[in-house]
Amino acid sequence: MSKGLPKRSEDYSLWYNELVKRAGLAENSGVRGCMVIKPYGYAIWEKMQRVLDDMFKKTGHSNAYFPLFIPKSMFEAEEKNAEGFAKECAVVTHYRLQNDPDNKGKLRVDPEARLEEELVVRPTSEAIIWSTYKNWIQSYRDLPLLINQWANVVRWEMRTRLFLRTAEFLWQEGHTAHATAEEAVAETVQMLNVYADFAENYLALPVVKGVKTPNERFAGALDTYCIEGLMQDGKALQAGTSHFLGQNFAQAFDVKFTNKEGKLEHVWGTSWGVSTRLMGALVMAHSDDEGLVLPPKLAPIQVVFVPIFRKDEELAQISEKVAELKQKLEAKGISVKYDDRDTERPGFKFAEWELKGVPVRVAIGPRDLENGTAEVARRDTKEKQSLQLEGLENTLENLLHDIQENIYNKALQFRQENTVKVDSYEEFKRVLDEKPGFVLAHWDGTPETEERIKEETKATIRCIALDTPEEAGVDMVTGKPSSRRVYFARAY
Amino acid sequence: MSKGLPKRSEDYSLWYNELVKRAGLAENSGVRGCMVIKPYGYAIWEKMQRVLDDMFKKTGHSNAYFPLFIPKSMFEAEEKNAEGFAKECAVVTHYRLQNDPDNKGKLRVDPEARLEEELVVRPTSEAIIWSTYKNWIQSYRDLPLLINQWANVVRWEMRTRLFLRTAEFLWQEGHTAHATAEEAVAETVQMLNVYADFAENYLALPVVKGVKTPNERFAGALDTYCIEGLMQDGKALQAGTSHFLGQNFAQAFDVKFTNKEGKLEHVWGTSWGVSTRLMGALVMAHSDDEGLVLPPKLAPIQVVFVPIFRKDEELAQISEKVAELKQKLEAKGISVKYDDRDTERPGFKFAEWELKGVPVRVAIGPRDLENGTAEVARRDTKEKQSLQLEGLENTLENLLHDIQENIYNKALQFRQENTVKVDSYEEFKRVLDEKPGFVLAHWDGTPETEERIKEETKATIRCIALDTPEEAGVDMVTGKPSSRRVYFARAY
Ligand SMILES: [Zn+2]
Ligand SMILES: [Zn+2]
After folding, report:
1. A215 & A248 share domain
2. Are A223 and A318 members of one domain?
3. Looking at the complex, does the CB of residue B101 fall below 8 Å from at least one CB of chain A?
4. Which pLDDT tens digit goes with each residue over B62-114?
5. Nearest CB to B94: which of A93, A99, A343?
6. Under an 8 A CB cutoff, do B65 and A36 touch?
7. Which domain does A233 fall in, by range?
8. pTM exceeds 0.80, yes or no
């Protein structure tokens, strides 16, 4: 099953692509740049959605749904945002097909059915949503407006990779409106923290929380906050963003409210999102050369039972025991699969469930039954141990907890080992080539220097971390003064 | 709040539109034919989704996600399906916008960024999914393949109505593949039954289960099963469809499997779907001139508490009691809202929650507290009664159960009263004009007669019900023999 999975050390990129396909997460479709998310991959995404959705609701947000299409004139209203996305917009120009007179059985676009105004397929929904908020907001009593949408978006990408960069992807986009700048900034930071909480406690991915440089800001935002994780190849991956929009969209769409003093003011806005890109982060952060390593909290199957048997009566006895254990585990909310296929051998099954990243595998044979034990293997460390069947549901519950923690700690240790302070440009380049990871360096704060470093090294400023201490220094390239280090890395 | 809601008896259609908007379910957007689903409406849709999704999973289906876009050549592969949807396809022809040289600050479609092949925005996903299944299915061991997708689809409609007919709508579409025709038919019928179960036990909408006539079949299907409900104006509404696709898509996309005997065969398929149209059915089946009447199982808020007070200390005492009751109710999984706004009077609140269809309203004043009682009003019958606070959580739990049943029974009684057998065309027309509803009449089985009746009366054959007994008769129009009655109605 996992035979022939490329090794990370040999070709990380190929390893990733093959793993995503072979583990049944996703595949390329017959539509350029668009992927098919397969059932096993979608089951993980559903788990992510459920957890995030609960977090959004706990922080006071409601879901809604806005149109897929945005008329061009509406799209271009906020100029910076429009300019930022113009180059990757899919555009609907016609609304009908007809039989092709020159080609029997084929269709062509009906030239008579041209739209008066072209429709942009949403690359992000600020425009359509703020054009709607105009009608929803009159008074301070209508604020804050805290809305989220689960949706598909389209950004036409020339070079795509499964989950990480696809023409169509799934995401959630929060869009909130507030009476004051302070409240909007607080919301922006709150959602950044929600994302960091999710990344660390569910994805098991330690993240750096920070602010983007102006160069890397969301088009139309005054500030973009982000969480950045480090993948096993030393590249950074932006796992979520939260934008303080100021009054930009309120001005573009004329969204005003009467404040408590009876004066008209423009509304303050935020937007924030995470996408199916998180699936890529999940794979790249933890998996190994045998396959996926899923954190138990996001694993569609947390425990798989594999019977070891020769005779039918052996299988019957094992099945009876497993049914009993399965029930006890499920009563604890643990998802269990019993792989009793008689068409495959145990070794094949072991490899398959390793490939699919199931956190715990329990093998039970006739000898185990006699002894009242089972062979329990954890996916993360590959350790095996013989455990008592009596009370196994409790042992496994604790084990799943330990695995979740261990995966996080391993990723944290990796990040710590691959985050270095650097004070010269020479060293900066050497680190990037020899032991890539996060590089903390001084930067003079200019877009020119940032641009130059990007061109010369392909490293970008991932963020100015929120928790970086002030520290006097000089820019490693220009020698100009700097008051704090920023996070550089090559990135996905 | 509900002031000025039009009356059903005066203008049913206007009543519906106004109710959908004022209750906060949905509104028209700035995009032709596309709606915005507002938070309260979306919360109901989420409840529907959750219930249906659980039902699909219990019957062995997994979710996945397939691309929004379908290349034209792929779309046209199954000719009947393509022909059926060609006239309502939104088509993407370009993938980039650019600055308009003639119009500063505006964008235009970049003429250089024309797609080599146009992309159809999915009106339904058989084509893209079967083109994918070709790679997933080789052997009988890969079957059955039981997949569902939650997605948005686009069908360009000239005349749209909120929820009932919109250019973009949300739905789920199941797409399954099977080794035999029998198994595929069984799946088709199973999903019809799942839909009927959902309609009757959650939407509280009694439905007729049946088969469509060839005229009304899904384009590309061999048989279309459907559930049909009756709205309060006597019009029918198709609430869900389940299609037996035969081998049509397998042939169009060359999807074959090796059977147990080692021979290659085409795969058998089904597809089935329900959409945000169900929201329209929900509104039209049960609501009244004061607003929505929501079945408790789908109500985002099941119980609303309204404090009746003059002084702050009265409010404080009531709030304390409500907090206690709220906790007990929520422990039973009942969703509760406490409307303690001090900006609105009780009468305004009562009207607002009536408009929003909250099944149970509990008003508590200082006198109630003294007596240990509360005034409980049910939304469906508008009955009020004084109930003991002691054990109120149990009383309300039972009450919600009764309301769910009562709403269903009322709709069932309405349908029974508005389903008539008719044996002459004269009577048929008179019934449709004077007391519209389901009309059971004999039909000679020809598309010509069906078409003629449709043109002359606007009534269509909703379905040949699965449970209609055989009964010799003659077609009311042509006098030709018929062996069973069919369901006619004017429909949404
Ligand atoms: Zn960052
Ligand atoms: Zn029918």
Report:
1. yes
2. no
3. no
4. 999 999 999 999 999 999 999 999 999 999 999 999 999 999 889 999 999 99
5. A93
6. yes
7. 12-286
8. yes
